[in-house]
Amino acid sequence: MRAIRRWVSPAIAVAALALVVWRLGTGPFLAGLKAVDARSVLAAAAVVLVTTVCSAWRWAVVSRGLGVRLSFRAAVGAYYRAVFLNLTLPSGVAGDVHRGVSHGREVHDVGRALRAVVWERAAGQVVQVVLTIAVLLALPSPVRSSMPFVAVALVVVAVAVVAASRLGGGDSRWARVRNGAASDIRDGILRRGALPAIVLTSVVVAAGHAVTFLIAARAAGVTAPISRLLPLVLLAVLATALPNIGGWGPREGVTAWVFSAAGLGAAAGAATAVTFGVLVLAASLPGAVVLVVERLPRRRLPRPSRHGSFFRPEGAADA
User: Could you tell me where the DSSP H helices lie in 89-225?
Assistant: First the structure.
């Protein structure tokens, strides 16, 4: 089963890309690459800077709640590194695993540090889903007629999760997992002072992803008004959470579909998704710098003598 799970994500991503190429050809991919220019890269880099800083802040808040120290400065560097690794390694989540393990080794608690990463990302996804549903309910889109049912289903799921977290007791494995998760959520996310910061940063991050997609759409030559594009790009952003290869795969398929359903053309959607992928990769390059700097040999200061001085030879007499 572990081997199957390891290959499921790449298989889904490759199948999605193959389907898009089969239906649309390579033209949208080449057009998306050609659409990238210096102005769009700089704009995307500025937005990604804001989203990365907010994500790092959210991570630091959750980590402190779970009792693992994490400075804001270290969180920003590690988050840039994670974004870069997520976009360059096949699994799409390798960067998040890396930052969790690295942080855990620094604080001598890998399990708790990994849980902080999981809950930080989960909180961001929940806020993003809620925002997307709100926008899709308010603005016209190909899925607007289905959104009331989706909203009701989301409420039912939330109520079921809360009810399950309160059911039963005992020492069963399920009870231990449930109690541990409830404790993490209470201490890491719902504690006083943490929840407002987590919601605020998650809203900014979700908005930043949407803005980056809009930058990509304009660079790719899509001239539709923002009110028409916003629901589409939010759906495309949600697709980035599906199994992928460095972010590629379902994102291109979903974007092509929603653009086609909205009357903007599947080719324009695929080109926009490709432009978005290139822009985000370029904006994540500070993460590559972090990786290089981390591997540079660090200069060690000379150890002081037992007399407490760096300069006095050991055994020298006091004046």
Answer: 94-107, 110-138, 147-166, 173-188, 194-219
What one-character DSSP code corresponds to residue 35? T
- pLDDT tens column, 160-185: 877 776 665 566 777 778 788 888 89
The rounded distance, in Å, linking the Cα atoms of 87 and 191 is 32
Three-class DSSP category at 245? strand
Do the beta carbons of residue 85 and residue 284 sit within 8 Å?
no
φ, ψ dihedrals at 223, nearest 5°: -105, 10
> In whole angstroms, what is the distance from residue 39 CA to residue 276 CA?
14
Q: Which amino acid is at 267?
A: A
**How would you classify residue 89: left for phi > 0, otherwise alpha for psi between -120 and 50, otherwise beta?**
beta
What is the token pair recorded at 164? Answer: 């399950």
Identify whether the C-beta of residue 75 lies closer than 8 Å to the C-beta of residue 221: no
Of 246, 245, 248, 269, nearest to 257 (Cα)?
269
DSSP 274: H
* Helix, coil or strand: residue 170: coil
Strand partners, 245: 248
pTM of the full structure: 0.88
Tokens of 179: 């109690």
- φ, ψ of residue 245 to 5 degrees: the values are -120, 100
**How is the chain split among helix, strand and coil, in percent rounded to 5?**
75, 0, 25
Q: How far apart are CA 276 and CA 48, in angstroms?
A: 12
- Phi/psi-derived region of residue 7, left when phi > 0, alpha when psi is between -120 and 50, beta in every other case: alpha
Using one digit for the tens of pLDDT, what is the confidence trace for 220-251? 999 999 999 999 999 999 988 888 888 888 99
What's CA 286's distance to the chain center, in Å? 16
